[in-house]
Amino acid sequence: MVGDMVQPRRLRVRFLAGVTLTAALIAGALSSPAAAVQAAPAGIAPFSAPLNGTAGASALTGLAAPATFTHPGVLVGRSQLDFIRSKVNAGAQPWKAAYDQMMASSYASLSRTAKPRAVVECGSYSNPNYGCTDERQDALAAYTLALAWYVTRDNRYADKAIEIMNAWSAVITDHTNSNAPLQTGWAGSSWPRAAEIIRYTYTGWTSTAVTRFATMLRTVYLPEVINGSNSNGNWELSMMEAALGISVFLEDRTSYDRAVAKFRGRVPAYIYLTGDGSLPKGPPNSGIDTSAEIIKYWQNQSTFVDGLSQETCRDFTHTGYGISAISHFAETTRIQGQDLYPEIGERLRHALGFHSKYQLGTAAPSWLCGGSLTLGLGPVTEVGFNALHNRMGIAMTNTQTLTERQRPAGTNALFVAWETLTHANNPG
């Protein structure tokens, strides 16, 4: 599988002693499946780990988490789900073809058996791979089955999604080895998407199981991702996507604000605009500040143009991970009533257009990565293209051509899945 560079393992503090259930849950406020659909998610005590000196969201422009969270509200909201269902049931394209592709995949199988592990160990490029692939694929399967449930209203799909989520929440305790932060970010991005749909549209997930799943996210996933990473930008962006989705499911405003703060600092350090000056911005608190340090961090690229990514000269595949996580993060904030697209949209527009141009076959000039590009952007353009072009009316010729050519967009088997189905021309 396509992995990432070795990152020095940092000390991870679990703060298990601070994890408590709210009185509402203890009192059994979610005692019936019917109540589970209406009540707030399992209430776990707010996470209180330090941010390693990173300023909070309020220090940037006064943004704060929503006073009331919207559910389902991670990557896809209820109006978007209703749009998907109506299009598929009408046999409209490209949604019906995208749905058929999803349903034909192994992720939608009703005979799937989860493969949970207590400890998932992932080294660089998932070597060793002790549960890494199994965890990512089970998380993507839970999300796939949740989408299948919403479209079909066939309880079997919801029950299978619950079975997978319950299996992992009963077992997993940790992620270890050098790729643990990235692995946790990838799987942790998919779990809350599935959980949000099932938790708020289906009555069959018991309050006890919801609480246990929430505790898993709180104690196993959130501490691993919330403080970010000084590795390549796709690491931190995926980790913040996971942190944001988990925060929505837990209704944790403190962690939500922390994820937003990290994200808003990282995006300008990942995608360059000429307004940044002669050099890209360094990641906050990374110690990457001088011209030589920044050029080395940007894969030895020394000419900077609008839309260039910190990982463009590494390869388009990892760049696609970063672009996708940016789009996913902004989409979730939009659903939550805190739209970050206006803030990051110009960078995202240029990044999508720049990389789409070369992915479509334009030869690289000599000043760009020495005239040699490693392509493979992946199925990552639908969410950003829909938001910027369809909702905001921005012309994006190259991105549109690539997006339509790649339909129906499938999955990268990591954390991207079925985005033609979920976001193609979706106004919700």
TrEMBL record:
Residue ranges annotated for the Alginate lyase domain, each copy included: 133-281
MF (Gene Ontology): lyase activity
Keyword Metal-binding included in the entry's annotation: no
Annotated signal peptide: 1-36
Entry keyword annotation includes Plastid: no
Keywords (A to Z) from UniProt: Lyase, Signal
Pfam families assigned to the protein according to its UniProt record, in alphabetical order: Alginate_lyase (PF05426)
Coiled coil: none
Name of the protein this chain belongs to: Alginate lyase family protein
Naturally occurring in which organism (per UniProt): Sphaerisporangium flaviroseum
